[in-house]
Write a structure and sequence with these properties.
The complex is a heterodimer of chains A (167) and B (503). With 167 residues, chain A is mainly beta. Chain A contains one helix and 16 strands. Chain B is built from 18 helices and 22 strands. Classes of the chains: A mainly beta (167), B alpha+beta (503).
């Protein structure tokens, strides 16, 4: 069976086949055999060529969070999430720039108004989360086209705060 | 001794205090906001009462509601933890008026040390060294300009009612002063309900060294040595240790004596911490008194063997201090790492959401003070501290190794955390040398990014992912060996159960 995953936006393919009570995995040009035991829904024990690995895994929608040797990474299936990523890089919105909330929080202040010209790195808004103020800076030089939120609003991560038109 | 205590806090510190209550045979009452119904402190307490909506001002800062709850449940005392109402003299006064014991200093001492400017004046009068700065709260913004020029840049903006780095800003030049003042005042207002700020000289390359002190209600004071807390980001500590590499026995003795004098001058009782800045020439300056149980109190507990929360409760109940100064000894080395829900690779932005999986490190000399569990939600409303990992070993070197290994064992999935970052801090050669100053993170970890998985771990990660999808498509169940069947495991009851899909 072949599986595809996105890791840091790069696509990887891996194939898995069952062979007796073991599994053979094919990745790039190499193949290896793994003895895999399910310790719990979140923990797998792998023995590959006599080396023992403990892998922790958690799932959320299309994402898997995997931790190995104290290092964790997020991988996801290509498809909805992946395509969404591409679109975010303003292919459809060419010439516009949407500034999004970096984390869930509360809008404390909007420092600019619509039609105002802004410099790169100018503070556009202040969002507070967990009692810390975070300045939202302009990624580009341009003009404020539209403001979607006002002071006091609770915002989710990735929620558009304002739209800029780069000059 | 008390029979029942209300804990006016949440998260790991509420859990810590509840455990102390259990050990002392005292019933505990947890209070919680509407988003915290499922949190650990609520699960652990003997009684739990919802005190309002998620914003702290309507729940954990709601003094009237908390006192009323204490009365309703018959709690004789309130432990405020740290943050929230811990250093609020109005709350301490309300407790005194309502005949509920506040487990902390008396309201007069709290008021004195909580007012940083009054405290500085009192300490200066008593001959305790302080940092040059403003001696009164300025009336207008113009006064700040003059004062900053007089003290000389760089200057530090600090919140009068402050702590924990909130409202704090360093200003390097005159044109940065106004915007920094405005931001600092807003932050101070949001965090403490009081926007007053003041300026002081910013000392470059300092170490942050603080002394733990205990004082009973009868004037007996002991100090439990120092903690060095120089490793900070955003002026907030993330790694603390004891003993400090910068002190020798003589300096330790001198600073410890001054710490006791500070509490004496303030008419202080219960647990407190006296903070100093130590410059590279070993000059020390009194900074402030933290009139509460500190986040980093466990390192002192591990190095001295004294349970500070037990002591707080005993002192508040009117017991005399049984500890004698000459009997308190430092042994070995203790380090604490704070596990925050934030993204160190992205400017330490807070990260809220669901903890999908948590594995706590265990082992000899490892302590984990934790307020969360697999499946718990981290709300956006409160400080992002999740847990504290504390280790003890005979030497600093072995404590570092033990900490590194415990961090390697720490698994937290679903939200960003400081675990990977702390591993790099602990492993850094300058940290290993003990060359810790408050600029450490800025100097060596400014553009820190988490490591990308290498070829080998990528291969294993993909293998695990593929196996995970395979087994979920085949509905394979976790292995249950005959040995495992004898132990109670949720898998025996849950049957065919999967996360994120239909069974």
């Amino acid at each position: 069976m072949e599986y595809e995953y996105l890791v840091n936006q790069a696509l990887h393919k891996i194939a898995l086949e069952k062979k007796g009570d073991r599994f053979v995995l094919h990745y790039r040009e190499s193949s290896f055999e793994a003895d895999i035991k399910i310790v719990s829904a979140n923990v797998y024990s792998l023995i590959i060529e006599g080396r023992s690995y403990l892998i922790y895994i958690a799932r959320e929608k299309e994402k898997k969070y995997i931790s190995l040797d104290g290092q964790s990474c997020i991988i996801q299936k290509p498809g909805q999430e992946g395509k969404h990523f591409d679109r975010g890089e303003d292919r459809a919105d060419k010439g516009k720039s949407i500034v999004k909330a970096p984390m869930p929080g509360k809008v404390i202040k909007i420092n600019v108004s619509e039609k105002e010209a802004v410099r790169k790195n100018q503070t556009l808004a202040i969002v507070e989360a967990m009692k810390m103020e975070n300045e939202i800076k302009s990624p580009v030089e341009g003009q404020v086209k539209k403001i979607f939120v006002s002071a006091g609003d609770l915002v989710d991560s990735e929620k558009p705060l304002l739209e800029l038109e780069p000059t | 001794m008390f029979k029942k205590i209300l804990i006016a806090n949440r998260g790991e510190i509420a859990v810590r205090v509840i455990k102390a209550c259990q050990e002392l045979g005292i019933a505990s009452v947890a209070v919680y906001s509407e988003v915290d119904r499922a949190s650990l402190h609520v699960q652990m307490a003997d009684e739990a009462v919802c005190i309002g909506p998620p914003p702290a001002v309507e729940s954990y800062l709601n003094m009237g509601r908390i006192i009323q709850t204490a009365h309703d449940r018959g709690a004789e005392a309130v432990h405020p933890g740290y943050g929230f109402l811990a250093e609020n003299p109005d709350f301490a006064r309300l407790c005194e008026k309502e005949k509920v014991v506040f487990i902390g200093p008396n309201s007069r001492a709290l008021e004195l040390v909580g007012d940083k400017i009054r405290a500085r004046r009192a300490m200066e009068k008593a001959g305790i060294p302080i940092i040059p700065g403003m001696k009164s709260v300025p009336k207008g913004l113009g006064e700040f300009d003059d004062e900053a020029r007089k003290i000389g840049y760089p200057v530090m903006i600090k919140a009068s009612a402050g702590g924990g780095g909130k409202g704090m800003r360093i200003v390097f030049s005159e044109d940065e002063l106004r915007p920094s003042l405005e931001a600092g005042m807003r932050e101070a207002k949001a965090a403490f309900g009081d926007e007053s700020v003041y300026l002081e000289k910013y000392i470059e390359e300092p170490r942050h060294v603080e002394f733990q002190v205990l004082a009973d209600n009868y004037g007996h004071i002991v100090q439990l040595f120092e903690r060095e807390c120089s490793i900070q980001r955003r002026h907030q500590k993330i790694v603390e240790e004891t003993p400090s590499q910068a002190l020798d026995a003589q300096l330790r003795q001198r600073m410890g004596d001054i710490a006791k004098k500070v509490l004496d001058v303030s008419g202080y009782n219960n647990a407190g911490t006296v903070e100093f800045l130590l410059d590279k020439n070993k000059n020390y300056y009194f900074l402030e008194v933290n009139a509460r149980l500190q986040v980093e109190h466990p390192v002192t507990e591990l190095a001295t063997g004294v349970d500070l929360v037990h002591q707080q409760i005993r002192i508040a109940s009117g017991e005399k201090l049984s500890l004698k100064q000459e009997e308190i000894k430092q042994r070995g080395h203790a380090i604490e790492c704070r596990i925050y829900a934030e993204d160190p690779g992205n400017n330490f932005l807070p990260s809220s959401g669901r903890i999908l999986y948590l594995k706590e490190p265990k082992g000899p000399g490892v302590r984990h003070d934790c307020g969360v569990y697999s499946g718990s939600e981290v709300p956006i409303y409160y400080d992002p501290i999740l847990a504290k990992l504390i280790v003890w070993a005979e030497t600093r070197e072995s404590a570092c190794q033990r900490m590194k290994s415990a961090l390697d064992d720490y698994v937290i999935l679903g939200i960003s955390s400081t675990v990977g970052f702390l591993k790099d801090v602990i492993s850094h050669p300058r940290f290993r040398e003990g060359a810790t100053t408050t600029g450490f993170i800025k100097n060596y970890f400014d553009q820190w990014k988490g490591k990308e998985p290498g070829e080998e771990s990528l291969k294993l990660t993909l293998a695990a992912a593929a196996f995970d999808d395979y087994r979920r498509s085949q509905a394979l169940e976790p292995a249950s060996s005959s040995r495992e069947r004898q132990t109670i495991s949720p898998w025996q009851f849950l049957g065919k159960w999967r996360i994120g899909g239909k069974a």
